[in-house]
Amino acid sequence: LDNASRTDGIFSLIGRLRDGATAAQAQSEVDAVASELRSRFQVKETAGMHFRVEPMAADLVKDVKPALLALTWSGIFVLLIACVNVANLLLVRASQTEGEHAVRAALGGSGAMLARQALAEALLLSAIGALAGLGLAALGIRVMEIVAPEGLPRFDTVSIDTTVLGFTLLVTLATTCALGVVPALRASRPDLMSVLRPAGRVGARSAGKALRHAAVIAEVALAYSLLVGCGLMVRSYIALTHANAGYDPSGLLTFSLRNGRLKTPPEKAAFSQALHDRLAAIPGVQAVTAAYPFPLDGNSANLRWGTEAAVADPAKFRQGSARFVLPGYFETMRTTVISGRTFSDADNVPGAKVVVIDRLLAAKAFPNQAAVGKQLLSRFRTPEPEAFDVIGVVEHQRHETLARDGRETLYFADGMIGHGFATSWAVRTAGDPASFAAQVRAAVAAIDPMVPAAELKPMSDYVRRSQAPTRFALVCISVFAAIAAVLAAVGLYGTLALVVRQRTTEIGVRMALGASRGRIFMLVIGRGLMLSGAGIAIGLGIALALTRVLRSLLVGVEATDPLTFAVIAIAFGGLAAIACWIPARRAAALDAAEALRVD
C-alpha cells in the first residue's frame, strides 16, 4: 500500500455502522485515519485531505430537500390560511345567528344542544372540504409527475393510500374542533337581553370584530410570505434560463461510449479517430467532439493546481476541476476563446505538457496578467507537481449546475493521458438533434457493433434536468401562493362586507350629517387597507425568517432581496384594494333614508 497511487480521489466508500455505533463515532475514526495519511504523505497534506461521514438517507435527498421543504411549508401555510378563513366565516355565521340562538335558549334550549349544532355545522364544512381536497390531491399528484425533477426519491410511491386518508381524517377532526369551538362557545352562552333588544343586536354582532380582524391579518401575513417566496423563485427561474453556461446546448446530441477491449494508446487513438470521422461524415452534422466529464452529466474530476509560488509553499496549491477533451471541443461547444489558442492534433499526444484554462482560473492564478505563456503546476498523475504551459484561456463552463459557476477548470487533451478517457461524445447538428439518433447509432455500430452508444439524448435534456429542481419548487410555491392570495382576498372581502352590513345604520347617520359618498367609500376601503398593511408588516417578518429555506434554490437573487419584497407588497396591496373596492362601493351607494330604517 505504501507504493500505491496517492493521486486518485474519485471513489466514494459505503459502509454499515455496527449496532449501537453512531455517525459521530464513525466520523471520529475516519478523522484519525485521514490525519495519519496526511502525516505520512505530503500530497495528502497539501491537498488538505479529509473524509466526511454522511448518512445515506441524507445523501439521497440532499438535492431535493430544499424543494420538498419549500413544498411542505407552502402546504402548511395554505392549510393555516384556509383554517383561518373558515374560522372567520364561522364567526360571521355565529354573529348572524346570535338572535336565533337567543330565541332557542329563551325557549328552553340548553347550551350543550346549541354547542352541538355549531360543531355539527363546522364538521359538515370540514367534511366537504376534505372530500374536495382528496380530489384536488389526486389531480395534484398527476401534475407533480409532470413537473417533478428526475431522481426525486420515492416519488413513485406517492399516492392516496390509507396513510393519506388517515391524515385527512385527522386534519378534518382537528379542524372541526379548532374552528368550531369558538362559535360553539358563543352559541352555548348567548346574552339573551343584549341580543334580543333591537339596540343591543348591533353591539352583539360587532362583539367578534377583533377576532375577525385578527383572522384577516393572519391570512394576509401568511399569503404575503408565500407570495414573496413565489416572487423569489420566479426571479431565480428567469435568471436560470438566461444564465451564461459558457456553451451552447442547442443542436447538440450527446451519448456515452466506452470500449473496454482496447488496451494500448494507439488502439484507443485509432478507434477515437475512426468514430470521429464516421460521425462527422453524417449529412447535417457540423462538428464532433468528446470529453470527460461532460457538462451537466453528473460526473466530476478534481485535481490540485498551483502557480510557481506553490513550489516553495505547497499550501498554495488549490482545488480545481479537470476536463479531458478532444481537439475541437471548444469550437463544437461554441465556447468563447478569450486569448491564446485551443488544442490541435499535435497537442493530443501522450505526455503533452499543455493546458487550456478557463476565465475563473486565469483570474485566480494570474490576476491582472496575461495567462497565456505562463506555467501552471498540477498533480494528478504523480505525487510530485508537473508543469504545464498555458496555451489558451476560454470562457468558464458551468459543469455541475447552471445555477452556480462551480470550480475553476483546467482542460487537458485526451491523448495526454493515453487516449480513450474522453468517453462522452457530442455531435452538433444543423437541425433537431433527436432526429440524428438513428444515424449516430448506425455510425457507432459500423465502427464496432459490440460497443453501444449509451444515454443517447439531446443536450437540452441535461439542461432541463438541471433546471428541474428550481422549476419544481416554482410551480409548487406558485400554486400555493395563488391559492393563499385568493383565500386572503376572500377573507378580506367577507370581513368588510360584514362590516358594511353591520354598520349600515351608522353609515346612514354619517350621510345624514353630511358625509359625502367619497368619504364613506374611503372609510371602508381605508379599513381594509389598514388590515392589509398590518398583515403585510407581519408577513414581512415571516418571509425574512422562512425564505432561508429557499436559499439553495435561488439563482441570481438573494433571499432578502428588497426589490422582490417591495414589488410583492405593492402587488398584494393592489389585490387587497380590489377586494375592498366592492364593499366600499356598496357602502357609498347606500341611500341614507333606507339605511336609517335598517334594524
List the helices and strands and how they pair.
Layout lengths: L22 H18 L1 H6 L8 H6 L3 H32 L1 H9 L4 H37 L14 H27 L3 H5 L1 H8 L3 H33 L10 E5 L8 H16 L4 E8 L9 E5 L2 H4 L5 E8 L3 H5 L3 E4 L13 E5 H7 L9 E5 L6 E9 L14 E5 L10 E6 L7 H11 L6 E5 H44 L1 H9 L4 H30 L15 H27 L3 H6 L2
Parallel strand pairs: 4-9, 6-8
Antiparallel strand pairs: 1-10, 1-11, 2-4, 2-10, 3-4, 3-7, 5-8, 6-9, 7-8
Helix pairs in contact: 4-7, 4-10, 4-16, 6-7, 10-16, 10-18, 10-19, 11-15, 16-18, 16-19, 18-19
Task: Please explain how this structure is put together.
It is a single chain. The chain has 599 residues and is α+β, with helices and mostly antiparallel strands. The chain contains 20 helices and 11 strands. It has helices at residues 23-40, 42-47, 56-61, 65-96, 98-106, 111-147, 162-188, 192-196, 198-205, 209-241, 265-280, 309-312, 329-333, 359-365, 437-447, 459-502, 504-512, 517-546, 562-588, 592-597, and strands at residues 252-256, 285-292, 302-306, 318-325, 337-340, 354-358, 375-379, 386-394, 409-413, 424-429, 454-458. It has a 6-stranded mixed beta barrel with strand order 3-4-9-6-8-7. Helix 4 (65-96) packs parallel to helix 7 (162-188). It is elongated and about 105 Å long. The relative contact order is 0.13. The model is unreliable at 199-207 (pLDDT under 50).
